[in-house]
Amino acid sequence: MAEKFDIIIVGAGTAGLSAAIYATRSGKSVLVLEEMAYGGQIINTPEVANYPGIAKISGFDFAQGLYDQATALGARVEFCSVSGVEDRGNEKVVKTDGGDFEAGAVILATGAKNRPLGMAHEEEWIGNGISYCATCDGAFFKGKTVAVAGGGNTALEDAIFLSGYCEKVYLIHRRSELRGEQHLQEALRKKENVEFVLNVAIKELTGSDHLEAVVVTDKETGQERKLEVAGLFVAIGQMPKNERFADLVELDQGGYIVAGEDCKTSHEGIFVAGDCRTKSVRQLTTAASDGAVAALAACAYLER
Prior knowledge:
- It contains 6 helices and 17 strands.
- By secondary structure, the chain is α/β, with parallel strands linked by helices.
- The strands form 4 sheets. Strands 1, 2, 3, 4, 5, 6 and 17 form a 7-stranded mixed beta sheet that branches. A 5-stranded parallel beta sheet has the order 8-15-9-10-11, with helices on one face.
């Protein structure tokens, strides 16, 4: 017999743990399922300085606080991989590699994963020069030359972080202008060991059994340039991890779960919270907000 709960939350990031806090405080039995580490992507951020009421905190400490609060209130966290959700009328069955669990309502808070470049050798060289987390792996490249691919906030933050460790940092972007916030651009331009390589396309990753250089092509002139680097940090966006729910809820063309600010999906009794849903702003504050909204909506659904 599958173990039963009032609400099952898939994902233990900021949205999922916020949902767990609100649901348990509403008197519901809550199970949170997470396939990796609790906290989501924020655990890789060395400093969070834009969360209202908290002037400065590490991403790890922020996530730990959420986890401790949710579990102290009675939420249960299990680490397993979710393969899908089945609707059996009043009960939703969440299927995992550790067995099935049942609930009256489900909140999907699966977040998003890093978008790859799609280049040859990229996957096989992960850990051998290719990384998607500067704060995780930056220290391994102390005193070396590295590159960051991307032009948004994450790429700029990564380049700023790496400039404190590395001899030189190339910032590679496919457009002539960066997309990140102006204050980050200004901070990065003050770094003497950072070089902007703009309006280029990454043509090739070269090396023997590890990354040794990145070949880029100027999009106007077609001229190639070989950047000899020990590491490449890819920060070109994210992809939602919703394929396993495609037969249950509506997804948009980008794979995000279609839902408005009420966090209700196309399927009754299934709710969504955080970066995995359609939204214009994906920030820590909006993830926490989604968690609260989805949890209260799920509670209202159950009480009906």
